[in-house]
Amino acid sequence: MSKVNIVFDMSKYDLFRLCEARYNYRHNILIGKPGKPQQMERGFLCHVGNEIFYQCLKDGSGYDYAANAALSKIREAGVVSTDLDNDIINRCVDVMEEYYDHWRIADQSFEIKEVEQPFMYELFTNDEVRIFLSGKIDLITSDNQYENEPMDHKTYDRSYEVGRMNNQFKCYAVATKSNYLTVNKIGFQKTLKPHEKFIRTRLTFDPLILEEWKENVINVIMNSYLGCVAENKWPMNETSCEKFNRRCEFYDICDASGLPAKNWKINSDYIKVEPWDVTKAMKKSSQIIEDEKKKRELASSGDKDGTS
Question: Measured at the alpha carbon of residue 5, what is the angle toward residues 282 and 117, in degrees to the nearest 5?
């Protein structure tokens, strides 16, 4: 009998842990709200710029060339692959130009091993199931102290502390066999100075905490997740309906009384979304831009031809 392969990245895993019902709507029923959150698109532009910038440095280009190429790509990506207005795109360019200048010396002092490196590893296997974890690491660097260290870029508006309990960070540490990971915070605050908003925090992971994390992930997937799949029951987690002053996108469905009312909400307020694709999730940001550009061009062509 062939084994069942289960593949999770940490965005899927975190969503399941946040709320099983929310996971079900997004990944099984395949629905979502129209449009993408502005912060998500803004963060994507910064990742695009950093992919170009660090790849240029890795290939031996000088700082000026790398920075100009990155800023040019951010402008292009903002226009052809997002719905952001020009003011927000220009703000992204301004922030990233300031970011590159702030880290100019530091970024040329370490060896860049990989840029947006995809990975997949087997976490667990038995006679029936294999569990794989996948992802894409923004940057992997080495210097005279830290070898093969992953770095994760995070854009933000409000200051916050980072800690090593983050599932994504632990997954990256395991994938790279590193005991360290740097969180690269890129702030969009207009009133803060560069050293106050561009912050790199190094986290340390000992073998015991990583082993405990792996055991916990295996337990969640083997018991909670497969239990939901087997029974086709995806319970609501009411404590996650409103987090950080943001309401869950599926709140109105869960809040509706009875199945007919829920279905009416789904059909009237939500759209079908593409299923999660591990190969797409592992693509470089620049390739995602090209795919989105072609998708929009085809849609525009169809509109002009009167087709859908």
Answer: 20
